[in-house]
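Lab notebook, design round three. We kept the backbone fixed and only want residue identities now. Task for the bench partner: fill in a sequence for the structure below.
Input structure tokens:
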């Protein structure tokens, strides 16, 4: 199943859509929604998911705030995973074997990029994130507007959880990790990294 990208994690259903374009973006929010179960071509699926949000500093809504777009990713650095492919085009460099053992996802916060915003559903269902690449030299990047935010089920913070939209909270509460936590099942794993730690001097 495609890692669908949506214009916003705001589930109000009443918001402006950014224009279809290629534009500057900046990662400011990461939300771990845990292991989500579903079905694809009649077969059950089980994937660890997260929502990563970007503000668009040069594309503003009517009230002057930057538009926000969000992308659902499966939390995996497998060679065929969309997350790894997107990060490598964003970084402009492939992961080393050492990094693949230990990539801290929180390193994405505050990092700028170029985002391709494309029409979804034939243009009648809003927009989604297409390609993600690095920012070319010489482009001025405005200061971050939205505060950086991350939520990880394995490092539970009730105040952060309550700040999420009802739709995102519902996704978290149906995850395997949340059910294990509230049901006294298996220990919920810490989840800010795809391995341990890395000291490689790359954009992130």
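Proposed sequence:
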């Amino acid at each position: 199943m495609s890692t669908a990208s949506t214009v916003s994690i705001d589930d109000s259903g009443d918001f402006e859509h950014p224009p279809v374009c290629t534009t500057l973006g900046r990662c400011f929010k990461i939300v771990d929604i845990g292991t989500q179960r579903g079905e694809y071509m009649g077969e059950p699926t089980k994937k660890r998911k997260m929502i990563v949000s970007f503000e668009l500093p040069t594309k503003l809504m009517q009230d002057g705030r930057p538009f926000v777009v969000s992308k659902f990713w499966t939390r995996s650095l497998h060679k065929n995973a969309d997350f790894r492919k997107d990060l490598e085009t964003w970084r402009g460099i492939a992961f080393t074997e050492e990094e693949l053992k230990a990539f801290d996802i929180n390193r994405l916060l505050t990092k700028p990029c170029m985002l391709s915003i494309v029409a979804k559903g034939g243009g009648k269902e809003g927009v989604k994130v297409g390609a993600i690449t690095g920012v070319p030299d010489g482009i001025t990047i405005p200061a971050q507007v939205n505060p950086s935010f991350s939520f990880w089920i394995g490092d539970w913070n009730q105040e952060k959880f309550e700040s999420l939209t009802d739709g995102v909270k519902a996704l978290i509460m149906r995850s395997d990790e949340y059910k294990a936590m509230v049901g006294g099942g298996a220990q919920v794993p810490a989840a800010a990294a795809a391995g341990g730690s890395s000291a490689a001097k790359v954009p992130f």
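Keep this in mind before ordering anything: Residues 5-183 form one domain.
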